[in-house]
Amino acid sequence: MKVRHILGISGGKDSAALAIYMKDKYPDLKIEYYNSDTGCELEETEILIDRLESYLGGITRLRAAAGSTEPTPFEHFLKACGNFLPSPQARWCTQKMKLQEMEKFVGDEPAISYVGIRGDEERDGYISTKPNIQAIFPFRRNIWSLDVINLFFNKENISKVVEIYRNVCPDIHDLDEAIRILETPLTKKFYYSKKLNALLDLDVKVFNKAVFEFLKTTSLPVGQLDKFPLVDNDDIIIKDDVFSILENSGVGVPGYYKPIEFEVDGQIGTYNRSRSGCYFCFFQQKIEWVWLYEQHRDLYMKAMEFEKDGYTWNQSESLAELCRPERIRQIKLEAIRKQQAQKKQGDGTLLSQIDDNDEILCMNCFI
Ligand code: SF4
Questions:
Q1: Per-residue pLDDT for 266 more than 90?
Q2: Which SUPFAM superfamilies does the entry mention (predicted)?
Q3: Distance, CA 64 to ligand 1 centroid (Å)?
Q4: What is the pLDDT of residue 309?
Q5: 168 Cβ below 6 A of ligand 1
Q6: Which of 365, 273, 279, 282 is nearest to 317 (CA)?
Q7: CB burial readout 82-105, b (16+ within 10 A) else e
Q8: What is the DSSP code (8-state) at residue 99?
Q9: Is the pLDDT score of 55 beyond 80?
Q10: What is the mean predicted confidence (pLDDT) over 96-117?
Q11: Which of 213, 238, 277, 335 is the most buried (most CB within 10 A)?
């Protein structure tokens, strides 16, 4: 059966870098790149996606609510929701504008979805909600998702996995050690990640080969392939590498990351947008709202217009309150204070100011 290879371009730096990396490193993989267009992205994001499209040779644009008379998919669904704004607790926006479209795009065919979680992130990783989609993380030392690792270490599969290791492990000493690790029961002290890291420390490529052989005994998409070149991948791509990939390819870093200086009471700070996503995204920090107000006033005003019937983007204050001069001054001073504290810790660089809030795991919006 044909297995599709897909890669979602969110407009963020990590998925953009992953797309470039995959195209350059695995030119024979027929990867389908796609982007979910909300109609509410920043101009800088659109520029990045257009440049990527030229580099990659094509990106399928998915757009929800096709045929709607509303100007954007967001406005279509907002109307349908009775002006109820999305929030971290009621995140209908991602569901309706991105996830549903992605699931329609993939359909029921087996598909491998490449996800740009980096090697320097602590996230466990996304597990697909559809059984026919399997996530792979090429930037991490462990390219496999948690559900695959759980299956691989399941005690009912140990004898099968040991047998596979005997066939794929060329070094007899490594084999003895691998079998010892595999047969050591999971406990509170020797938990999944310890067991996983012990095997990866031994040999990443052998581990990957073993998992690939094991997957052939399951119905998961990777197991349906004759060969999977990523088993030989032991790269670990971290944040600095992502920026290098973007710069070296000529695609460049998304413009919204560029720090812009501001001054309050003789003190200098910088602001920028830390993530991709809709211009009104409720995950942005207060200083990013100020950035939007001062750098994209029209978009701030549009976001403000959506605040009606008591619904606001921020729980604590409305956008009309947030853009009062005294409040902007306060937010900027707070940002300067944080940046100075970061600088004291030797961490005031552009890269460190780009926030990667690990709690907000969403490959569809921010990766
Ligand atoms: S970027 Fe923010 S507002 Fe837009 S879909 Fe994602 S979570 Fe919702």
A1: yes
A2: Adenine nucleotide alpha hydrolases-like
A3: 14
A4: 85
A5: no
A6: 282
A7: eeebbbeeeeebbebbbbebbeeb
A8: I
A9: yes
A10: 93
A11: 277
Of all residues in the chain, what percent carry a pLDDT higher than 90?
A: 83
Cα-to-centroid distance, 294 and ligand 1 (Å) = 21
Distance 38 CA to ligand 1 centre (A): 9
Tokens, residue 279: 């211009």
Mutate to test the pocket of ligand 1, among 38, 75, 306 (most ligand atoms within 8 A of CB): 38
Residues 6+ apart with CB under 8 A from 272: 256, 257, 258, 259, 260, 288, 291, 353, 354
- Statement: residue 123 has pLDDT above 90: no
Ligand 1 pocket member 93 (CB < 6 A)? yes
Q: What is the value of pTM for the model shown?
A: 0.92
CA distance 139 to 127: 16
In this structure, the residue with its CA closest to atom 1 of ligand 1 is 277
Atom 2 of ligand 1, residue of closest alpha carbon? 281
At residue 131 the predicted structure's pLDDT band, cuts being 50, 70 and 90, is confident
CA of 93 to the centre of ligand 1 (A): 6
pLDDT at 306 over 80: yes
Answer whether 303's CB lies under 8 Å from 313's CB.
yes
Do the Cβ atoms of 101 and 109 come closer than 8 Å? no
Mean of pLDDT values over 255-262: 95
Domains by residue range for the chain, with CATH: 4-145+236-249 (3.40.50.620), 148-230 (no CATH), 256-353 (no CATH)
